[in-house]
C-alpha cells in the first residue's frame, strides 16, 4: 500500500506511525477476504495485513484503532 494505491489506507498507516514513532514504517498489504481483519506477520521485518472487507467496512478511526496495536 502506498500513496498511489489505497491512499486512504496509506494515510491511516502514516497516522499510526506518527502516533507510535516506530524505527521503520512497516509495509502494509491488503488481503482479499470476506471477513474483516488485521494482523501482523514477520519477525525481523514485521509487516501489517488488512483484509479487503476491513477496508470496505471500517472508517479511518476504526482502521487506526486496529493498526496501532498491531
Walk me through the structure.
The chain has 70 residues and is of the alpha+beta class. It has helices at residues 7-20, 52-57, 60-67; strands at 28-31, 38-41, 47-51. It has a three-stranded mixed β-sheet. Helix 1 packs across helix 3 (60-67). The longest helix is centred in the first third of the chain and has 14 residues, at 7-20. The protein is globular, with a radius of gyration of 11 Å. 13% of the residues are buried. The mean pLDDT is 90.
Q: What's the short story on this structure?
A:
The chain has 70 residues and is α+β, with helices and mostly antiparallel strands. Helix content is 40%, strand content 19%. The protein has three helices and three strands.
Number of helices: 3
Largest sheet: 3 strands, mixed
N-C termini distance: 16 Å
Rounded to an integer in angstroms, the radius of gyration calculated over CA atoms is 11 Å
Query: Proportion of β residues?
Result: 15-25%
Tell me which oligomeric state these chains represent: single chain
Helix content: 40-55%
Which helices and strands occur, and which strands form pairs?
Elements: H1 7-20, E1 28-31, E2 38-41, E3 47-51, H2 52-57, H3 60-67
Parallel strand pairs: 1-3
Antiparallel strand pairs: 2-3
Helix pairs in contact: 1-3
Amino acid at each position: 500500500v502506498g500513496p498511489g494505491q489505497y491512499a486512504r489506507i496509506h494515510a491511516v498507516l502514516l497516522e499510526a506511525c506518527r502516533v507510535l514513532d516506530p524505527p521503520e514504517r512497516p509495509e502494509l498489504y491488503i488481503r482479499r477476504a470476506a471477513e474483516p481483519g488485521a494482523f501482523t506477520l514477520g519477525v525481523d521485518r514485521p509487516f501489517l495485513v488488512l483484509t479487503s472487507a476491513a477496508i470496505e467496512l471500517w472508517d479511518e478511526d476504526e482502521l487506526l484503532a486496529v493498526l496501532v496495536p498491531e
